[in-house]
C-alpha cells in the first residue's frame, strides 16, 4: 500500500541569484495528514522528482527507485540517512528497509560520476559546485543545515550523514569555493577513497580551487575520509580539524586492491581502514595551515597515485590515534613539505612510495612560509602570515621514522627533532637519498640504537603472499663495484650534527650504502651485515614483524659501505665494522671510546688510520 498527496510530493530546491539561506526546518508545501509513503514487499516505487514527506516505510523486498542517470538521497530532519550499498563491493546505493518519521526529503538528483581503475562510481553529495557555482540539480540541499550558502562559498553550515557512500561538499570542473566555520560529521562506510566516494569534502579537476577555514570534520567509517584533493585541483585548509576513525568492514569483504581497496595493504606493516586525507592525480596541490589531521590507524596525511604534485603542512598536528599507522605518505613524483609540524605516528612518521618522491622536514620560518605563499599562490594576507609562529618540526614515532619502499629523497633541517622507538631510516632494497643538516639544531634519536637499516625487501608482493627468510649465503657478483657510488645506491649525508647509533647495509645483491659526515660526530657501528627477522616467514597474520630485524656484522659481499669524513668530523667506532671504502680529510679522525683503541686492516693487512687517508678494499675496523 502507498498513499501520498501530489501537492505534497514536490519541493523545489533552487538557489537565488545571490544566496540561499538554509533554515533548519524548511517550509512545508500544503502539509496534510496523508503526506506519507509506504512501499510494500516486492513493490518498486519509481520516484521521478524530489519529494517531501512526514512518514516513509519501506518493507523488506520493497524498493524506492529513480530514473536512470539519477541518484536518490534521503534526509530526515536534515540528516542524510538510510542509504546502503547494494552489495559489499557494489558502487550504487539504495534505501534500506525501515520506517522514518519527521521532516523527510527524498532528493532525486542528476548523477555525478567518477571513474577509478575502470570502475565508475555514482557519487551523491549535499552540495555540488561547478564552474558557475552551486549546481542544484546535483545537490541534496536538504542535508545542508543552518548558515548561508552562495555560489562562491558556504559558512556556518552543518552536514551530518549516517548513511553509506554520501559526500558533503564536492567541488569540480574548475569551480572556486570556500567553506568556512562549518561542521561535517559522517558515520557509516564510504566506498572508494581513491576518488573520494563517501568523503566529507572533495576538490577535483584542473582549475578547481577549494578553501576550508575553521572547518571541523569528524568521520567514522571504512574509507570515510575527511578531505580529498585530486586531479589538478588546488586545496587550502586553514585553522581546521579532520579526525577519521576506523569503521566496521562488511563481513564478506576480502582484501583487494585498486577500486576495491578498503583496508591498507598489510605489506606495509600496518592495519586500518580509513585515511583522514588524500592527495591524488597529476598537478594537484594540497596545503594545510595551523590545522589538525588525525586518523585512528592507516594514514593521516596521504599522497597516493600522483605525479607532479605538492603536499604541504605548516604548523599542523598530524597524528595516528591508535597503535599503528603513518603520519604522512609520499607516493609518486610529489614534493611533500612538513614545516613546523607535530607528527605523532603509530608505526612510521612517513612512508616514501615510488617514483622519486621528495620529503622535507623543517622549520616554519617567516621566509619559508612567504616563499610557499608565493609558489603555491595561497593568497595569504599579511595578518595571516604574521600570525603563523616560526617553529620547528617535532616527530615522535612509536615505531620507525621513515620507510622507503620506493625510491625517494628526504631532507631534514632547521630545528627538526625526530625520535623513534625503532630504526630511524628503514630502506627496503631501493634508492634512498638522505640529507640531514644539524646546523640549526636538528637531531635524530633512534630508540633501538639503529639510525639506518638498508635491507632486502620483506614485502611478499601480493595480498596472499608470504615472505620467506633466505637461508643461503649471498654469492659475490664480480661485476658489481662495492667501492663506488652508483645511481641506485642509498646515500646519507650528515652536516653539523652529533649522531649516535648504528648504520647497517644488509643487502644481498648489488647495492651500496654511502655515508658522508661533514663537521659532524658519529658514534656507533657502520658496517655491512646480514639481517634476520624473528620469524622465518611472514604472511598477513605476522604483518607486525615486517621491518623488524637484527643484524650480525660481516665482511662486504655485494653490500658495500663507503664512509667519508670531512670538515673535521669524528667517527667513534663502538664495535667491529666492515667497510669497502673509508676517506678522511686532514682534519677528521676515527677513534674508539675512552679506554679503548681502534685498529684497521685493509685486505687483511694491518693499516693505520691516518688523517687525509683514503682506503678501499676489505676494510675491518675493530675496537
Q: Descriptors for this entry?
A:
about 625 residues; mainly beta; 34-stranded mixed β-sheet; 16-stranded mixed β-sheet; 60 strands; about 5% helix; elongated; disordered N terminus
Structure description:
Strand 15 and strand 16 (153-155) form a beta hairpin. This protein is 3% helix and 48% strand. It is mostly beta strands and 623 residues long.
Number of strands: 60
The whole-angstrom Rg is 28 Å
Shape: elongated
Assign the structural class, choosing from mainly alpha, mainly beta, alpha/beta, alpha+beta, or little secondary structure.
Answer: mainly beta
Strand coverage percent: over 45%
**Low-pLDDT stretches:** 1-33
Q: Count the helices. How many?
A: 2
Measured distance between first and last alpha carbons: 90 Å
Write the layout of secondary structure elements.
Blueprint: E1 19-21, E2 36-39, E3 44-46, E4 51-58, E5 63-65, E6 70-76, E7 79-80, E8 83-85, E9 93-95, E10 98-110, E11 112-116, E12 119-130, E13 133-134, E14 144-145, E15 148-150, E16 153-155, E17 158-161, E18 166-171, E19 176-180, E20 183-187, E21 201-204, E22 209-213, E23 216-220, E24 227-230, E25 234-238, E26 241-245, E27 275-282, E28 285-289, E29 292-295, E30 299-314, E31 317-320, E32 326-330, E33 333-339, E34 342-345, E35 348-352, E36 357-362, H1 366-376, H2 382-387, E37 394-397, E38 400-404, E39 408-412, E40 417-420, E41 425-428, E42 432-437, E43 443-446, E44 450-455, E45 467-468, E46 490-495, E47 498-500, E48 502-505, E49 513-518, E50 521-524, E51 526-532, E52 537-538, E53 550-553, E54 561-566, E55 570-573, E56 577-584, E57 589-591, E58 599-602, E59 605-606, E60 614-622
Parallel strand pairs: 2-4, 3-5, 7-17, 12-18, 16-19, 17-20, 18-21, 19-22, 20-23, 21-24, 22-25, 23-26, 24-27, 25-28, 26-29, 27-30, 28-30, 29-31, 30-32, 30-33, 31-34, 32-35, 33-36, 34-37, 35-38, 36-39, 37-40, 38-41, 39-42, 40-43, 41-44, 42-46, 44-48, 46-49, 47-50, 48-51, 49-54, 50-55, 54-56, 55-57
Antiparallel strand pairs: 1-15, 4-10, 6-7, 6-10, 8-9, 11-12, 12-13, 14-17, 15-16, 45-52, 51-53, 56-60, 58-59, 58-60
Amino acid at each position: 500500500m502507498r498513499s501520498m498527496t501530489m501537492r505534497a510530493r514536490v519541493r523545489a530546491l533552487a538557489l537565488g541569484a545571490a544566496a540561499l539561506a538554509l533554515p533548519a526546518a524548511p517550509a512545508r508545501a500544503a502539509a496534510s495528514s496523508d503526506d506519507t509513503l509506504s512501499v510494500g514487499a516486492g513493490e518498486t516505487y519509481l520516484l521521478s522528482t524530489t519529494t517531501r514527506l512526514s512518514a516513509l516505510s519501506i518493507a523488506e523486498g520493497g524498493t524506492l527507485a529513480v530514473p536512470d542517470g539519477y541518484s536518490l538521497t534521503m534526509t530526515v530532519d536534515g540528516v542524510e540517512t538510510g542509504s546502503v550499498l547494494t552489495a559489499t563491493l557494489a558502487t550504487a546505493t539504495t534505501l534500506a528497509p525501515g520506517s522514518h518519521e519527521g521532516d523527510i526529503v527524498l532528493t532525486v538528483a542528476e548523477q555525478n560520476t567518477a571513474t577509478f581503475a575502470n570502475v565508475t562510481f555514482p557519487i551523491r553529495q549535499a552540495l555540488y559546485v561547478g564552474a558557475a557555482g552551486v549546481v542544484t540539480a546535483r545537490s541534496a540541499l536538504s542535508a545542508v543545515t543552518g548558515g548561508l550558502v552562495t555560489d562562491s562559498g558556504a559558512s556556518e553550515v552543518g552536514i551530518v550523514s549516517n548513511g553509506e557512500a554520501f559526500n558533503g561538499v564536492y567541488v569540480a570542473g574548475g569551480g572556486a569555493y570556500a567553506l568556512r566555520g562549518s561542521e561535517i560529521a559522517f558515520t557509516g562506510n564510504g566506498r572508494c577513497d581513491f576518488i573520494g566516494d563517501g568523503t566529507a569534502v572533495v576538490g577535483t579537476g584542473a582549475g578547481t580551487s577549494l578553501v576550508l577555514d575553521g572547518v571541523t570534520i569528524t568521520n567514522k567509517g571504512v574509507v570515510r575520509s575527511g578531505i580529498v584533493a585530486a586531479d589538478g585541483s588546488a586545496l587550502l585548509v586553514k585553522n581546521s580539524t579532520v579526525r577519521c576513525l576506523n569503521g566496521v568492514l562488511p563481513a564478506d569483504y576480502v582484501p583487494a586492491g585498486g577500486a576495491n581497496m578498503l583496508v591498507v595493504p598489510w605489506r606495509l606493516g600496518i592495519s586500518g581502514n580509513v585515511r583522514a586525507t588524500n592527495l591524488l592525480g597529476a598537478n594537484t596541490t594540497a596545503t594545510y595551515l595551523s590545522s589538525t589531521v588525525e586518523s585512528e590507524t592507516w594514514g593521516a596525511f596521504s599522497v597516493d597515485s600522483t605525479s607532479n604534485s605538492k603536499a604541504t603542512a605548516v604548523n599542523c598536528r598530524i597524528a595516528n590515534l591508535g597503535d599503528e599507522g603513518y603520519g604522512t605518505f609520499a607516493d609518486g613524483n610529489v614534493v611533500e613539505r612538513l614545516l613546523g609540524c607535530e607528527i605523532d605516528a603509530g608505526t612510521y612518521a612517513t612512508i616514501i612510495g615510488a617514483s622519486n618522491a621528495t620529503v622535507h622536514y623543517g622549520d616554519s620560518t617567516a621566509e619559508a612560509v612567504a616563499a610557499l605563499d608565493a609558489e603555491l599562490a595561497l593568497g595569504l594576507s599579511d595578518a595571516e602570515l604574521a600570525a603563523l609562529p616560526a617553529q620547528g618540526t617535532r616527530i615522535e614515532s612509536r615505531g620507525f621514522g621513515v620507510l622507503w619502499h620506493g625510491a625517494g629523497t628526504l631532507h631534514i633541517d632547521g630545528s627538526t627533532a625526530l625520535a623513534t622507538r625503532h630504526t630511524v631510516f628503514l630502506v627496503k632494497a631501493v634508492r634512498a637519498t638522505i640529507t640531514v643538516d644539524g646546523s640549526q639544531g636538528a637531531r635524530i634519536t633512534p630508540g633501538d640504537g639503529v639510525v639506518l637499516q638498508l635491507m632486502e625487501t620483506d614485502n611478499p608482493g601480493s595480498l596472499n603472499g608470504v615472505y620467506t627468510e633466505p637461508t643461503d649465503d649471498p654469492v659475490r657478483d664480480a661485476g658489481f663495484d662495492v667501492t663506488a657510488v652508483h645511481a641506485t645506491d642509498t646515500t646519507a649525508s650528515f652536516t653539523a650534527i652529533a649522531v649516535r647509533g648504528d648504520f647497517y647495509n644488509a643487502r644481498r645483491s648489488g647495492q651500496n650504502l654511502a655515508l658522508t659526515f661533514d663537521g659532524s660526530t658519529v658514534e656507533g657501528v657502520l658496517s655491512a651485515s646480514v639481517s634476520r627477522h624473528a620469524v622465518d616467514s611472514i604472511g598477513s597474520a605476522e604483518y607486525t614483524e615486517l621491518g623488524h630485524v637484527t643484524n650480525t656484522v660481516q665482511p662486504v659481499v655485494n653490500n658495500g659501505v663507503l664512509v667519508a669524513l670531512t670538515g673535521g668530523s669524528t667517527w667513534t667506532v663502538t664495535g667491529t665494522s666492515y667497510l669497502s671504502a673509508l676517506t678522511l680529510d686532514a682534519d677528521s679522525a676515527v677513534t674508539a671510546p675512552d679506554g679503548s683503541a681502534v685498529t684497521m686492516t685493509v685486505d687483511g693487512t694491518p693499516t693505520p688510520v691516518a688523517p687525509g687517508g683514503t682506503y678501499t678494499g676489505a676494510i675491518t675496523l675493530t675496537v
